[in-house]
Write a structure and sequence with these properties.
The structure is a single chain. By secondary structure, this protein is mostly beta strands. It folds into three domains: 9-28 and 191-337, RlpA-like domain (Barwin-like endoglucanases); 47-186, Jelly Rolls (Sandwich); 341-409, SH3 type barrels. 6% of the residues lie in helices and 39% in strands. The chain contains three helices and 25 strands. The strands form five sheets. Strands 2, 3, 4, 5, 6, 7, 8, 9 and 10 form a nine-stranded antiparallel β-sheet that branches. A six-stranded mixed beta barrel has the order 12-16-13-15-14-17. A three-stranded antiparallel β-sheet has the order 21-18-25, with no helix packed on it. A hairpin with a 2-residue loop joins strand 23 and strand 24 (401-404). The longest helix has 11 residues, at 3-13. The protein is globular and about 60 Å long. The N and C termini lie far apart (51 Å).
Amino acid sequence: MTAPTRNRHRARRDTLVGVLSAAVLAAVAVAVTAPAPPATAQAPQETTWTVDLTSDRNDTNVRTTADGLQLRSTTGRATRGASMGGDRARGLFVAAPHDLATPANRIAVEPSADVPAGSDVIVDVRGLRDDGSWTEWIPARPGSPAVLESAVRTVQARVTLLAGDGGASPVVHSLQLVADRAATIRLRLGPRTSTSRVFATREGLVGGTTANGHVVRERDHFVALPSSRGLSPRDTGDYTVKVCADNGRCEWAPVWDLGPWNTTDDYWNPSDIRQSWQDLAQGLPQAQAAYEEGYNAGRDQFGRVVTNPAGIDLADGTFWDGLRLRDNSWVTVSYLWTASGPVAAVRSYLLNVRTGPSSDHRAVGLAAQHAQLRVECVAAGQRVSGSEGTTNQWLRIGPGQFVSAAHVATPPGIRPC
């Protein structure tokens, strides 16, 4: 990389990103040292458990045998993830959530596994926040525990299996987790919602299988991001984005696939906690830096020449119907799991988002099924019947953006607009 290119990257790191408005500062990660406990206090209690590795229909390309958890297949299009591409078969196992006796923020993993040459076993963990949303998936390896952003009472593990040389599958015989309270924890100050301006491409790939096991349908509604930290389990919107085009249309859609280009590029996070490419500015996808400025010799993490600057892939329905795009375009993306506030889940297949609390108001976008919405307030309006009953309550999910509560699972206690 030339010196001018390096300087451009340094300059971009000083740019404030991840803002909802010019008046809101970006999410900031800081280390806070917990005060020492009184001499009479008892040491934090460890919680240890063994994960049940029995796979079910919600997992992707894995099976449980007498030996343990392994890949179901190492050949075929469905084993690789639609948007991601590549030539390594992969499988995904999501364990049942585990409730802790005491809150914890550090999770250690102790797997027992056979890992053939070229294969890998990746364990990620996440925690359930008080507002009902999940932290991001954080990698954990033996001797290197995952440290969550705050102490939680419910923890979930995810195991990714990657095939090795000749398609050999790793086999996980057992997985033990140990939860405790770290003396130093990572907190975020103030509003956390990260928002970026990135290039969007249409995913297409109808009939392919996404990284979380969803089979892509015609005019489908989901997105792909280049990091598994924000990958939703199948048929959930645990990680949802709000994507807005320059024409004023927006869609709220779940993250169901990995890509484009990379799989460890959580560019929406502050640089010091970004999994890869920490010398890049927050909000700048590695693929964009590679394409525009020759970063990493113009290649992605797999060594492929980057031919467009995409930081997000859009399923066809999101692209054509939600945003009404005609070509690949620059869009504004908010990563809603980085936000705070009440969470509501869309139950209908597609839900119109309107400028006011009635169907007489103009539609300005769509909320896809399973998407999780951050609710600002609730307003009285047109009476509507839906999956959640009949109600005149409408949820404001952004400035001039309303959806009927008749189609959304809504928590109690939301303030009036």
